[in-house]
Amino acid sequence: xxxxxxxxxxxxxxxxxxxxxxxxxxxILPKEQxxxxxxxCQRNPKPCPLLEVTDPGDPEPKSLAxxxxxxxxxxxYRVWRNGDLxxxxxxxxxxWRADLVAFLLGCSFTFDTALVNAGIDVPHMRDGxxxxxxxxxxxxxxxxxxxxxxxxxxxxxxxxxxxxxxxxQVTSRFPxxxxxPIHIGNPGAIGIRDVNKxxxxxxxxxxxxDVPVFWxxxxxxxxxxxxxxxxxxxxxxxxxxxITDVRDEDMAVI
Amino acid sequence: xxxxxxxxxxxxxxxxxxxxxxxxxxxILPKEQxxxxxxxCQRNPKPCPLLEVTDPGDPEPKSLAxxxxxxxxxxxYRVWRNGDLxxxxxxxxxxWRADLVAFLLGCSFTFDTALVNAGIDVPHMRDGxxxxxxxxxxxxxxxxxxxxxxxxxxxxxxxxxxxxxxxxQVTSRFPxxxxxPIHIGNPGAIGIRDVNKxxxxxxxxxxxxDVPVFWxxxxxxxxxxxxxxxxxxxxxxxxxxxITDVRDEDMAVI
Lengths: 254, 254
Description:
The structure is a homodimer. The first copy, chain A, is an alpha+beta fold. Helices cover 18% and strands 27% of the residues of chain A. In chain A, the strands form two sheets. In chain A, strands 1, 2, 3, 4, 5, 10 and 11 form a seven-stranded antiparallel beta sheet that branches. In chain A, strand 3 and strand 4 form a beta hairpin. Chain A is globular and about 50 Å long.
C-alpha cells in the first residue's frame, strides 16, 4: 500500500486500508519549534500520543516503518504557513529541509477496528456511512507548551447504551491511540452545542438508544496550529494517514 | 512529607512514605540537552516514562505537584559533571539556573504497592528486606537520541511461580510506571551473569519456587549519563524520590 502511495497511484483516504496495521497522524515542524511541540505532546498525551520522532532532516521513521519515506508515503499533505492552510499536495520532496522533524501520533483507526471486532456497533463503521467520524472543537483547553496552545478536538462515536462499558474497556487497551473516552453522554458539558453540526468529518445517524461518547482526537494539532501560528508546518490531510509496519495488537497494553 | 523534606528535616529514602501517592525519578538538564533527552524518553518509554517536563528555569512541577519546588523537595540529589558523579546534596538552590529543565519519570514504587495489594509476595517488600530492589545493567541497548545512548537498567522481583501471570497483569495497568515486565525467567538472556550480584540495590532472598521477573528501571537515565557524558546534569539520589500529589490509581490505564 505504501509503495502505491509513494508512486502516486493512490492519493485517497486510508480508512479501512491495510487492516490490522497501525496508521498515524503526522506533524512536521522545523527543529526550532520541535522542542515546544515535544513538550506539548508530553503534556497532552490523550489528543497527541507520540509514537515516533524522527531525527532532524531524516525522513525515515526507523521505528514504525523502516525503509519508508515520510516525504512521499502519505497520500495527501497539508502545508501550513503562519497558521494558515497554504497548500495541499501529494508529496513534499521539494519542501523537505535538513532541519525538519516529523512527529507520528496515534490514530483512532486502530481502536475503531478493535471496537468492531468486539462486536460494538460503531455508526461511522457501518456500511454506507463512509468511515468518516464526526469531530468537534471543544471548550477543553490543551495544556500549553512554549508557542503551542489551543482547544482540544474530540471525535464522537454514538454507542448503543448497553455497549458503552465495553467501548471504554476496549479503547482503554490502546492508550497510545487516544485510549479511553474523555467524556460520555453530555455534549454541552465539553462545549459542543449541536452533535449534528461537527466541525470536521461527517454527521452520522444516531439511534434513540445511542449514547454520544467522545475521544480525544489527532486533529487537535491542526486546531492548535490555527491558534498558535507556527511559521511553517506540514501535516497529513485529514483521513489521509501514514500506514506503518506495526500491528494494532502490538500497541495494546493488555 | 514534602514540607519536611523542604525544611531539611528528612533526607532519607522515600520507599514506603506517603503510601498511595506517585513517586518519581528526576533528571534535570540544561535546555541545550533537553531536546535530545525528550526524544530519548519518547524512544525508550519503558525505562523512561515521562510524566512531566517543566518550563526552562521554572522549578515548579505544575501538573504533578502544584506549589512544590524541585530545588528543595527531593531528599537527596546527585550532581553530575561530564558524566561523573561530582556531588551529593540535599538541595540545589545554589545550582539552579534559568536554562534548567526538570524531567519527572515514573517509578516502580507505584506498582510495588499494587503487587502487594494484589496479594503477590514481592521479596524486597517483605519485612526486614529493606525495600531496596536489586537492579542490573543489561545487554539490551536503549534506542539512542542525539547525545544520549547507553544500556537499559532493569529491576528484578523474584515472584512465586504461580503468581507470575498476575504480576504481569497488575503491572500492565501502569504503563507510565515502567508497565509490564520486559523479561521473565532467564537472566542470562538479557546479559545478567549472576542475579546474586546486582549493579545497584541489594540482593534479596530467592526461594526455590521463585521466578526472576525483570522490569525496565528508572535508573537507566543515570547509566545513560555515565555513557553519554552530558556537561551538566542533576538527578535524584537512588531511592530518594520526588513525592507527587497524584494518587497511584490515577495513573492506572484500566
